[in-house]
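cache lookup: miss for this entity combination. No prior model stored, computing from scratch. Input as submitted by user K.M.:
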Amino acid sequence: MTPRVIARSRRAAAWWLPVFAGVLAVAIVAGVMKGPVPLTVAQVLHAMLSSAGNSTNDIIVKEIREPRVLCAAFVGAALATSGAVVQSIFKNPMADPGIIGVSAGGSIGAVLALIFSWALRSPFALPLAAFAGATLAVFLVYALATKHGKTSLIGVLLAGMIVSSMLDAGVSLALTFANNYQLRSIVFWLMGGFNGDGWTAVRLVAIPVSVGLVLVFTLARELDLLQTGEESAHSSGVPVEWVKRALLVLVALMTGASVAISGTIAFVGLIVPHMVRALVGPRHRVVLPASALLGAALLVVADMVARTLISSFEINVGIITSFLGGPFFLYLLLRSERRLGA
Amino acid sequence: MLSCDRLSFQEIVRDVSLQVEPGEIVALIGPNGAGKSTILKLLARVLTPTDGTVSLFGCGLQRMRARKRAQWLGYLPQQTVVDVAYTVRDIVEMGFYARGAASRNSSDFILAQVGLQSFADRDIRTLSGGERQRAFLGKVLAQDARILLLDEPVSGLDVGFQLDILRICRELAAEGRGILVTLHDLEHVLSYADRVILLHEGTIISQGLPVSVLTGPEMERVFGLRTRTFRDPHTKQPRLSLLRVDGLQNETPSAEQVDGGESQPPQPELAGAAG
């Protein structure tokens, strides 16, 4: 497919934002509606919007479904926006947030918490351990890739691969020492899911993700300039090293918080930015918020499917996203091959 | 003004000191590999020198914040590769970053200045190399900087557009901006530059007025060319006549006249005489 000669008009691109916001709202309501006890739209809206209400339906909505759906929305937004940022700074359409080591770091933190049963001491132990692991891994990757204050992006890619593979080996090692119960917990955590996520989880994820999103949105112009090359961005007045560092930190913050409460969920960070860019064009002022909205909606829907596909059984949402991700990835590959071959 | 003192970078640039004043066009010439692009990158602070200092209107460049620097100093790199679907207008408007928000009027004006008004909404990836170069020149112009560093801004452009860009440079200099530009076409240098700096193997071996540098003895050493200037009988403008010596054929002075013109083929004995 040859590039369009006349690019999308910018006003058309911005119209997608309210559309995506609408899709997200619908997804959230649908997500709360679906479950072992089916609820109507009216019941859902009443339970969500009014603070009083003690009926069973209200409790189902408020204590179980609403927080879970909100977690999925925050995590989806975080992963999709982080994916867009990572694909832009590395100028690599196959990149996802995990390449900077954050998923592997979160995994080893969570695995250690499960092996040593820290979760028995406090409900915060597991997410905090995962978050600590995620941020330490990214810090290690950054330190390996930075010399004399300059961060080489190729260095980040290589260091990310090295650190991720070593930490993944650590996870496998832990699995060999785990007892049956721990094994099951670890594997389920690694598959990713929102099972049992209540308001505690929402509180843990809401602030890092919201702060991360807002700050990333302010760097949209800098991201645009980086697409024209580091020299060109530098000559236009972008403090390139500082911006790269800030973006990596914000991605680590958002993705680390997401991994901390939901484990490793594949493909959201990879796919959503592509879908968004195909619809709205390359300008980050629209791509970043659009990715957040669409990512949130997608993960809410995926979680809903994961919960309701098989009636008495809950599939982990990471499985659903992987099933969707594989074919989409293949489609991307075929499309780019056709363009190169043309 | 932009000035550098004893600038060095590894083995590529050695002990270079030069200035660019507002209102002048300085041409930096020299064979490929002489270090012209490297010097521009050092002046633009894209590279950090191993020795020497660069200062912009009296302030050390290394102490300046990126945005502040970009308001005073613009740099157009030699190669610009974009594989993302930005429009030409997007690229030009990125140049407003240093000074804040862009207005559609200002980007229209700049697009007209570089001859890309009808290309405003085109995908940049569909442009030819020369058209893309003009778009990026527009981005630099959008910065409204006082000193401009242009690395081969006219290479690869149609002859007509080459003259357009050089005319823009002259207009910018008349507005009070200082321009340091690397050029390969010596005829352009003669017609448009106020001063010339000749670079060879990382050091400046000659600088001064175009006529004196371009007919100096260093030209033969550096380019293997014997040059003289003559006055074009039609336009009365100075023109350059070149004699290739020590060329690829390796014969002693072959009378290969590179420039036609109406002058007599210069005899080797007369070469070097002031035009």
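stored under new cache key. Confidence is low (pLDDT under 50) at residues 250-275 of chain B.
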